[in-house]
Amino acid sequence: MKNIIVLLLAIFSLMAFSSAKKPVIVKFKVFGNCPQCKERIETALDVKGVKSADWNVDTKIIEVVYSPDKITIEKIHQLIADCGHDTEKTKAPDKVYLKLPDCCMYRDNDFTHHD
Ligand SMILES: [Cu+2]
Questions:
Q1: Cα of 24 from ligand 1 centre, angstroms
Q2: Which of 1, 41, 72, 101 is the most buried (most CB within 10 A)?
Q3: What is the greatest pairwise CA distance in the chain?
Q4: For residue 114, what pLDDT is reported?
Q5: Which CATH number covers residue 85?
Q6: What separation in Å is there between the alpha carbon of 96 and the centre of ligand 1?
Q7: What is the pTM of this model?
Q8: Among 92, 84, 109, which residue's Cα sits nearest to residue 34?
Q9: What range defines the domain where residue 108 resides?
């Protein structure tokens, strides 16, 4: 009986260990325009748990490599939104968005046109 418990514990800890250490790669859309946006988005993801972040100016697709035991995908979306960029899942607060430089205004709303 004791041996079985030890064995089960060993299996569980091995499973937990192997699943916790694997980095996950995700790709999703982040709205933005220019190299300045790229810099801003990638800097926002310069946090613990994110191994790399690469946003493509042309396709608007970001590729993020992260450790799910250190940061959640929801948190990653939130960090991007908090710096002014909408993602597929999370909308940036208007207050932050409106402070972006003109070249970075990616939303096609009436209040972004000044004529
Ligand atoms: Cu920009």
A1: 27
A2: 41
A3: 79
A4: 46
A5: 3.30.70.100
A6: 13
A7: 0.78
A8: 84
A9: 22-112
Quote the ligand 1 centre to 34 CA distance (angstroms).
Answer: 4
The answer to whether residue 98 is domain-embedded is yes
- Distance between CA atoms of 31 and 57, rounded to whole angstroms? 9
Q: How far is the CA of 94 from the centre of ligand 1 (A)?
A: 16
Q: What is the mean pLDDT of each run of 10 residues along the chain (115 residues)?
A: 74 67 94 98 98 98 97 98 98 97 86 46
40 Cα–ligand 1 center, Å: 8
* Mean pLDDT score across all residues of the chain: 89
CA of 30 to the centre of ligand 1 (A): 12
- Structure confidence at residue 3 (pLDDT): 79
**CA-CA distance, 69 to 30, in Å (whole number)?**
23
Domain count, the chain: 1
Distance 88 CA to ligand 1 centre (A): 18
Per the CB < 8 A criterion, the answer to whether 25 and 63 are in contact is: yes
